């Protein structure tokens, strides 16, 4: 069973479009994250949600809007896509409140290409 | 602001060698440090997590050490195998409230048969 899943795996779109990436975790974790990995492979956190509430927003443009309908899902909606948004986006989850280790589990990534 | 540096950026070794990957961080006030593995086109897999109060963690052929005061961690891989070829990422969690991972840029390891 996949612990953290993302859809789609690949996304190719034109500049100016609006797109969404979905993330689901079946680990029962209370915290979910979105990371961006740029062309130089540098991985940086974008958002963190705990129990459906936004905890961390790391100076991400407001064109990016995360939405958490429940604890198991954290979707990422991007408006007015720009060339610089091209990257691999990773979703992750962890269980900070119940676990002493707080290991983060990552999804397989969504490769977004903006043309 | 926490910064994480990994050295070397790339490493190529013959199969069977023992090797060490290095990670340094600028702010010693950390909650934990994690080592991940990333295969090409894939997500990250957690290898080892060291709490700030711990000195090392071991899993099979992997051993990670942590020297918080000097801001350093090492990942030791014993008897390397071609299947160990991947990018290894070090990440520091600086927030004791909610997890905030700061990643290094990784070390790309190639183990040749």
Q: What this model shows, in words?
A:
The complex is a heterodimer of chains A (115) and B (113). In chain A, 0% of the residues lie in helices and 55% in strands. Chain A contains no helices and eleven strands. Chain A has strands at residues 4-7, 10-13, 19-25, 31-37, 43-50, 53-57, 64-70, 73-78, 87-94, 105-106, 110-114. In chain A, strand 7 and strand 8 (73-78) form a beta hairpin. Chain A is globular and about 40 Å long. The mean pLDDT of chain A is 89. Chain B is mainly β and 113 residues long. Helices cover 0% and strands 57% of the residues of chain B. Chain B has no helices and eleven strands. In chain B, strands 2, 4, 5, 9, 10 and 11 form a six-stranded mixed β-sheet that branches. In chain B, strands 1-3-8-7-6 form a five-stranded antiparallel β-sheet, with no helix packed on it. In chain B, strand 9 and strand 10 form a beta hairpin. The relative contact order of chain B is 0.34. Classes of the chains: A mainly beta (115), B mainly beta (113). Chain A binds chain B through residues 4, 31, 33, 40-45, 48, 50, 55-56, 90, 92, 94, 96, 100-109, and chain B through 31-32, 34, 36, 41-46, 49, 51, 87, 89, 91, 93, 98-103, 105-106.
Largest contact between chains: A-B, 27 and 24 residues
DSSP strand (E) fraction of chain B?
Answer: over 45%
Class from helix and strand fractions of chain A: mainly beta
- SSE order of chain A: EEEEEEEEEEE
Largest sheet of chain A: 7 strands, mixed
Count up the helices of chain B.
Answer: 0
- Total helix count of chain A? 0
Q: How many E strands of chain B?
A: 11
- Return the string of H and E elements of chain B: EEEEEEEEEEE
Radius of gyration of chain B: 13 Å
Oligomer: heterodimer
Q: Outline the biggest β-sheet of chain B.
A: 6 strands, mixed
Measured distance between first and last alpha carbons of chain A: 34 Å
- Helix percentage range of chain A: under 10%
Number of strands of chain A: 11
CA radius of gyration of chain A is 14 Å
For the termini of chain B, the CA-CA separation is: 41 Å
**Average pLDDT over all residues of chain B:** 93
Helical proportion of chain B? under 10%
- Spans of chain B with pLDDT under 50 lasting ≥5 residues? none
């Amino acid at each position: 069973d996949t612990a953290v899943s993302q859809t789609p795996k690949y996304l190719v779109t034109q500049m100016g479009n609006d797109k969404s990436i979905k993330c689901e975790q079946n680990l029962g974790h209370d915290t979910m994250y979105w990371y961006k990995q740029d062309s130089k492979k540098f991985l940086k956190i974008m958002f963190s949600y705990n129990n459906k509430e936004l905890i961390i927003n790391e100076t991400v443009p407001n064109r990016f809007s995360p939405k958490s309908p429940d604890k198991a899902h954290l979707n990422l909606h991007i408006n007015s896509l720009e060339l610089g948004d091209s990257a691999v986006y990773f979703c992750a989850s962890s269980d900070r409140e119940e676990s002493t280790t707080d290991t983060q589990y990552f999804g397989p990534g969504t490769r977004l290409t903006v043309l | 602001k926490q910064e994480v540096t990994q050295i070397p950026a790339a490493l190529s070794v013959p199969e069977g060698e023992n090797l060490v990957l290095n990670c340094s961080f600028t702010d010693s006030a950390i909650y934990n440090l994690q080592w991940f593995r990333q295969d090409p086109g894939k997500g990250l897999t957690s290898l080892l997590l060291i709490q700030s109060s711990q000195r090392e963690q071991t899993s099979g052929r992997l051993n990670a050490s942590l020297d918080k005061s000097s801001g350093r961690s090492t990942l030791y891989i014993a008897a390397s195998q071609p299947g160990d070829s991947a990018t290894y990422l070090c990440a520091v969690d600086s927030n004791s409230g909610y997890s905030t991972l700061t990643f290094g840029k990784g070390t790309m390891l190639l183990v040749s048969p």
